[in-house]
Amino acid sequence: MSESVLVTGGSGFMAGYIVRELLGRGFRVRATVRSLARADTVRERVATPGELTFAAADLLHDDGWDAAADGMDYVVHTAAPMPVGEFRGQDLLAPARDGTRRVLRAAHRAGVRRVVMTSSTATAIPADPGAPADESTWSDLPDLPRYAYPRAKTLAERDAWNLVRSWTGGPEFVAVLPANIQGPALDDDLSPSTSLIRMMLTGRMPMLPRTGYSIVDVRDLAVLHAEAMTSPDAAGQRFIAAGEFLWFREMAALLRDRFGDRAAKVPRRELPDWVVRAGARFNAEMDQLAPSLGVRTRLSAAHAERVLGWKARPAADSLTDAAASLFDLGLA
């Protein structure tokens, strides 16, 4: 019989691609959703042959996690609060930390062999902005609203390592640290990173902050999760998933070059740093952007390349495919 995998946060953008990848490799997949009413939507989004079932579980509550993990060989934990939607302006720390503990304890009680946690490169921000970062780097950020998301991700991942190290007999643990996730949207329920491209294409971003991201394609990220789950050499490791760094101005220029008249609303002018810093006093999004102004991140994925044979595709391809999917879906 094929092995079974529990994927938490099954209705998410990244989780959809991970479920696709695992089904394609012959695994039986159970995905958690907060409401089983979402199951048909997720099934249509994934659109891949194989055994896909669902379990209702919420990071904020204990109910459902033992039943979700029961009989599973692996857990891929992607579910996490983001500072958008229902969590905009809300506490991220407690849901991130408590939810991670709930998933891990359920996996431990169920005798799961290995847990792969989706962390973030936000957990590997060096003390010196722009300095090189690898899997040995850990963020150490002050308790300020602008750092709520990276602090939540960092503390949740640290909790996970401490918890699994306190147990004997497993499960094994692996952390995957994605950079900014791009790639084709599956439907109109967009991720925050894909929404950035939509804002550029639709003119909702009239000027470009002087910032940028290292980019990873969601399809490559799904492959990395699968390899981290199955490779004997991955146990006990962190893996940065990051490709090329692009400034916002470079992303915008790429979209204009690739899509011509369809990208006519993509901004050309950069927003002065002083405007962002002034606006940061009144606007949460600008406050979060302010520390990254003029900072080029230098994230190394050499460990994933060496241990798992993983390789990120060109960032231009990821952005092009993301934009093309938005046009195809009528969202740009």
UniProtKB/TrEMBL annotation:
Record Gene3D superfamilies: NAD(P)-binding Rossmann-like Domain
Domain NAD-dependent epimerase/dehydratase: 5-236
Protein name: Dihydroflavonol-4-reductase
Keyword set includes Oxidoreductase: yes
Enzyme class, UniProt record, top EC level: oxidoreductase
This protein's UniProt keywords: Oxidoreductase
Domain of life: Bacteria
